[in-house]
Amino acid sequence: MTQPTHTDPGQSGGFLAEIKDAVTTRAALLVLGVLALQLAFITSYVGAFHHPKPREIPIAVAAPAAPIAEQTAKQLDALPGTPLDPRAVQDEAEALRQIQNRDVDGALIIDPAGKTDKLLVASGAGASLAQAVEEVVGLVEKTQGRTVRVVDVAPAAAGDGRGLSSFYLVVGWCVGGYLCAAILAISAGARPANSARAVIRLGALAVYAIAAGLLGAVIAGPVLGALPGSVMALWGLGALVVFAVGAITLAFQGLAGVVGIGLAILLVVVLGNPSAGGAYPYPLLPPFWKDIGPWLPPGAGTYAARSIAYFKGNDITGPLLVLSGWAVLGSAVTLACAVSRRGRTGAAVGSGLPDGPEGPDLADSAAKAAGR
Q: What does the alpha-carbon distance between residue 347 and residue 340 come to, in Å, rounded to a whole number?
């Protein structure tokens, strides 16, 4: 008796059929999404950093006589390309106060009785920014047969190379925030099943943020000696940065499932990091990045960290409000998404199940099949 033969469907269809069976439409779309994210990353970083140029750097001008200061300010304001945004002030003390309050990034103190003027800079706000102020003002002084003596009134710490430690600290906090939220998706489903689960995730994120903020502040401060300033203030800032970024990521996951992790990376890494004012502070960035930087967590966090470290916490209210706004918005959207889903959780990342309404049903079917 002849035995029936069984043919493998994959073999009968050939290699193309095997590819079609192995690569799902969902996987292909996710790979295309990763490619788009990668290209956006390259475009954003190269676009922001390839040609730094000073634009409207705020600078104070002081002189013994007010007319001299005003005339010099007008001359600086008329420079081609408007690299400076000068304003005449009463005296050197007022100029120094404005630097410490972060109202200006430098100050030119004119000495009409001699040929050498004083230029006050603050490398704690970014070494590249202080260098740009020195170059622009020095060139103007040279054309007038004068020289400048540079005084750094808020120097970066010895362990803070080029004033970048604040930026890297905040980047680390941001990475921790979205990775913590992503791990929650990997372990328990991209979308929380209900509002109680959403509250639990936000609570776990808050505990993580407190720990991450403290450890980051201690490492950057007492351990490595990279940043001066209050450890307690940096701790609070770090906790807020981590929670804000994590809450944003949870919100994106609530709205878009697993794709939300990519959206969080797009916002925080692709758009946020190059516009944060780290390597090149805002006055050196192109207009687009200069405009969005203060409104995103990396930029708000970097500016606040530098204020804490070198400017006694001055001008920190705005960045803290921005971070708080992201934290509140992320939490509210996360809770709203959980309530609207009414018990329908998304599949855990890496489970192989679709992250949609059909995910729980497939998961139940798989569990029933395993129990047979």
A: 17
